[in-house]
Structure prediction request, 863 residues.
Amino acid sequence: MNKYILLSIVFIFKGLVAFCNEPDSAYVFAYSTNKNNNTAGLHYAWSVDKENWHTIGPEWRFLASDFGTWGAQKKMIQPFLFEDETGLKHCIWTLNNEVGQFAHAASDDLFNWKRQSYPEVTEEGNVLDLEVSYDKASKQYLITWLSEKQEQKKWFKTTTVDFKNYDETQEITKNERLNLRSTIVLDDEEQSGSIVKVSWKRIDGIIKWHEWSLFHNQERADNTSLDAERFKDLQSVKAAISVQPEKRKKISDKLVGIFFEDINYAADGGLYAELVQNRGFEYALSDRKNRDSTWNSYKSWSIEGSDATFSIDTTEPVHVNNKHFAVLKVDKTGSGLANEGFDGIPVKIGEKYDFSVFAKSLGDNNGRLLVQLIDENKKVIAESKTGTISGKWKKYETVLEANAASEKAKIVVIPQVTGEVALDMISLFPQNTFKGHKNGLRADLAQTIADIHPKFVRFPGGCVAHGDGLANMYRWSRTVGPLEARVPQRNIWNYHQSVGLGYFEYFQFCEDINAEPIPVLAAGVPCQNSATCGHGQQGGIPLCDMDEYIQEVLDLIEWANGDATTKWGKVRAKAGHSEPFHLKYIGIGNEDLITDIFEERFTMIFKAVQEKHPEITVIGTVGPFYMGTDYEEGWELATKLEVPMVDEHYYQPPGWFIHNQDFYDRYDRSKSKVYLGEYAAHLPGRPNNIETALSEALYMTSLERNGDVVEMTSYAPLLAKEGNTQWTPDLIYFNNNEVKPTVGYHVQKLFGQNAGETYIPGTIQLSDNSEDLKKRVAMSVVQDAESKDIIIKLVNLLPAEVEAGIDLTKLNIADSDAVLSVLSGTPDDKTAIPQSRKLQVSDNLKYQLPAYSFSVIRLKTNN
Ligand code: AHR
Prediction:
């Protein structure tokens, strides 16, 4: 028996056994340390006599602060624990040394904590040394703290009955402070904290919780590097497989879709086919939080030749939303303004490119613009001229045809007269876009996505949807209409969004690939990790502005579905789509912190949409993890409001996916449906390889099995441009010239192309019945309504082949020729691609699942 199994058994055993002679009550000491820049969270020690203390963990994190941005913030300083007369425990803590706010959270059991709040109690400085007591007579909690401002110390107090509303802060003397903290030596170190007397049951509960957490983390850490030892005696494995078509059930017909977020240059420089970078001269230092002095209106632009200069102006722009433009001054003709594209401009021989520019001549010298594509060796590989530039802003267009290819060309705009010319929205698109649309998408990337056969597309994020602070929320209406009138903005992933790929283009793409559009809108709150909401607090649209925001949400539905005579339907029609887009779903919120601020705003939006558009399915949000406060609180809120569907997110190691295949088996079918909107298997180093892909495949068989409660799923993130990634792993990598689907992509594609709307239960009986084996061999069988094909998916995450005998008698096979697709490789293989061939099938099919493989058998039946 290996160490791993032994430890697991010990934890489970200890968790189940109750010991005699335990005290009725004992003491919990709650504290935090300043380790990891004060982000280590709340720790406990227990004692029966207040003398001998036992740390748990030691220093296990039972509660973490959620205030502020990732990294330096999320601190918990000097927590104070307190039990009220109902037995509810409250923890308050200092957030940092600056803000006049503190944090509060409550818990029944000391390990499941409810939502956090961050009341603002003083403008007089910070909030340190917090303490709380309860006055039975007035039924009020009294909170005291120390404030330091310019080395001046002052003490304050406030009172509250519910930790939601606080009475006015009053200054007190030092002697009036509560002064309830204790100092205890733990593991030779002095710790300051608070002591609470609780029932032994509570302490036993936290000890067991800690043990379960260790066990759970061990499961999560499980990976194939343990296989050599774990399966060293494994010889041949046999599997007797049968199916039960009589127990078939309907499942979702939208199970596999895609999550599109403008992260990793997925939009500009990626799926959006525009080849000119910073075409509108709108890049700004703030896009990169002022950390990159080259990131400004000049980014990607330079002068080609020696007889010209250019500057940026904002007087009388093409449009108020697009304030910056270039003024090019030419002293001698021949020099021009050049753009290097996104890591160069890829040009294909024989292809045509649409050039456009807004221009106005600033002097009397009106002439044409020569537009050239020049390769790495300065050779002109395409050129054309615009018409004569007049003295008023006007759009000029011309087409360039490449006589040679280049992986890294430049575009140069060369005025044919001397003098000054104003230029803006300088754009170059290949004519070969996906489905040939103007302002369209990169054909090869879009096709790679389409090949998954996604049933829906979620956009524009992710964190991009709720944004970095209120001003950065993605506002759909600012992304439609003429390109020069759209409102470009900072991307939360620290670059620029031209929003040339805006809502119209997203909806058009969905229509092109026959996928449901799933726009996700902010729930009136920005990302909880925002840097711009008062020291990172979640913040929220002021309630007085919520009506306007809600109207914007309702307008989206009219824009998408209203006929061309409606206010917003007219805008859509003007953009070239007179028919409605038939929007059915709308996501409200993205893995937000579930706070009172969130709940209030989400509820307002949800109720308004429900009332005005009962035909629209609203998708709520339940936080960024598969458990914990936001998950629990999010689900509670969704259940209370009867939200039709919720969006779950979890990025976890392969071990989690292996050991949680029953995650949805236990879901209550009467509650909200699930959209698993973001998930991926993450290994250390974050590769996308056979190990991650097969653990996802294994889990996806359980998603199909639970397709009656899980309506939709999407791997995240989708796209990543090499050299420009903020997040790995992703599903599809690319550069300007190549698309590089990952192993995980092939799993999504196999599931997407082999989806079914009916699930046929089955059983797998292994020759060796150990849990380790059982958890690594999985199957799901579905039937596609249109072709009537039956699809058998088999995953083998073992280092050995599995000899399967599959009893297909009940399926009534119509054709002995089936199609088999197999993806397999060693766990660290990042390049495997599925191989397909014909497979002869019969009622008793013998099929050998290769080691570390995913097989899909597609067969014809008479049913
Ligand atoms: O998929 C990348 C990010 O992960 C998303 O933007 C966010 O929703 C999640 O945290």
The first strand starts at residue 25 and ends at 31. Residues 261, 263, 461-463, 590-591, 624, 678, 716-717, 727 surround alpha-L-arabinofuranose (CB under 6 Å).
